[in-house]
């Protein structure tokens, strides 16, 4: 049995990042104690870090520093080998690895990048896999190869490891052409029929294999003249522009990098105009050669444009530059959420996850980890497909999240706004979204607009609303999205990336209203700690609830916990525990506890109780012996918004906990609020939560 896998490649550019992301995603669903280690990394300039180490640490939030995640540099390894100190080299690697082994349940080990001597690095990988006692997963690249070239490369590599007493547990072939993938699967099965191992073929995908403008700029050491904020756009084609505009433009392909001499101002302006035109495809960027800069008059035009595509400059001539650009390979970075999502999707679709789970069977399950919780949420959201309306269709973060959700096939997304404006926002922000997979609705043009207006009028006429007022209100995307949920045309709404909390909640209170027996709309955050998930309420809505309201918040939070698979043990928090303290605030919590217990005697509720006594078993046993909640609480109810909001943010910042929310509760149908500073990941999690709520309402 093992607690590690060693990813080794048969050759350069074999797709280690894709496989690493897939394996780590899988293993983090079982344990938060997952590590990453590279025995040898390349030789980087001062201040630079290994790209793969940075990718996995930043994306997955691994509890690792860059220094801890590798053994030594290739330069240092070569020095020790040349000095006859190979054993010393191995001792350095083993020592650093053993320190990680003490901390983590599972470690993904990744081979070197084959940037120098392939023979030397391959032999080093065999040594490391053998001495670290780790089974090996061999990767190869099928790009521009025949079926037999792929299998031959795998056979040589597998035999090398096996002959050196390394256990090979599988082989993955990346970037397989669609024309040969079926034949390759058959040949692989025949060639490796005697070995018990994972065999997988992953088709090529330009969304992953295409480099970005940033990759090309770094490889060519190009100067960025304009558009530095848009360097992460993908380059699918390279087009050399050396002819007149009328001949060049018809040759432009989508997401092209246009290469032209620096003095061709006509090409520069024509390319920029084509990019902004609906009649031509997107341009990824412009690369100016020969070291020449655009004329001052051209610069003035460019500097007057907003959201510029990247314009780069190099000193070499066009021919050399084009050859160098074509040799650039894609690099994946932690902030490239869309491409990472594609990589995970490909891995999950083409690799036998059940077999992989068997290979990772020694990973220990301890509590509900953040990855496990997110995985559980995603699976539950997929069980019954929901339609989620996003009123802020013009926000780039909303569009990027929608692109990822559409790719993952979790929910049906409805974007509100004018179609041409939404498409322009996606285009200008380089959001690669397939609009055939989402629905765009312009509220005032919607077939049910008048029906919605009349419904709102009937609901609010006792408050003095007339039809004109109802028409104006329904033209607002927040009211319109809320009415879609109320009328059953959507299962839930997520808003707040642009709008205030009040703008999100007010229409919900007026249209959807609160559940029977509930007078308070409140919120919770799911605080996903390394070994457990806690529910914090209320941290976003009610500034200073009274005892009755606080009891309702506690009951609603418990019901939310139950609906997401958490058996609630509720702590009513205060600055004292039990009968030890007094004061107005303590009495408020004590009374709220009594009310909640009377309303729901089936729930385990303790209060007033201090935070440490609620979550720490030793402190809980000391301060409140015999309690069913003390030291075990997983639903924590704060006495006021000031305490709750500051506590959740402090825990999030200081522990690295994943905070999912706020999740609104108490409404008849799900509407959830985002922070205006929300990240794409926050939107993804909130939409998934809303989809699950929509399935239950």
Automatic annotation (TrEMBL):
Function description: Involved in acetate metabolism.
Positions of the Phosphate acetyl/butaryl transferase domain: 372-691
CDD domains given in the database record: DTBS (cd03109)
The organism's place on the tree of life at top rank: Bacteria
The name this protein goes by in its record: Phosphate acetyltransferase
Subcellular location field: Cytoplasm
Keywords: Acyltransferase, Cytoplasm, Transferase
NCBIfam families (alphabetical): PRK05632.1 (NF004167), PRK09653.1 (NF007233), pta (TIGR00651)
Domain DRTGG: 215-327
Free-text comment on this protein's domains from its UniProt entry: The N-terminal region seems to be important for proper quaternary structure. The C-terminal region contains the substrate-binding site.
Pathway it works in: Metabolic intermediate biosynthesis; acetyl-CoA biosynthesis; acetyl-CoA from acetate: step 2/2
Pfam families membership: AAA_26, DRTGG, PTA_PTB
Subunit structure: Homohexamer.
Organism in which the protein naturally occurs: Flammeovirga kamogawensis
Keyword Hydrolase assigned: no
Keyword Transcription among UniProt keywords: no
InterPro entries: DRTGG (IPR010766), P-Actrans_bac (IPR016475), P-loop_NTPase (IPR027417), P_AcTrfase (IPR004614), P_AcTrfase_dom1 (IPR042113), P_AcTrfase_dom2 (IPR042112), Phos_Acetyltrans/Butyryltrans (IPR050500), PTA_PTB (IPR002505)
The EC number(s) this enzyme carries: 2.3.1.8
Single Gene Ontology MF annotation: phosphate acetyltransferase activity
Transmembrane spans: none
Similarity remark: In the C-terminal section; belongs to the phosphate acetyltransferase and butyryltransferase family. In the N-terminal section; belongs to the CobB/CobQ family.
Catalysed reactions, semicolon-separated: acetyl-CoA + phosphate = acetyl phosphate + CoA
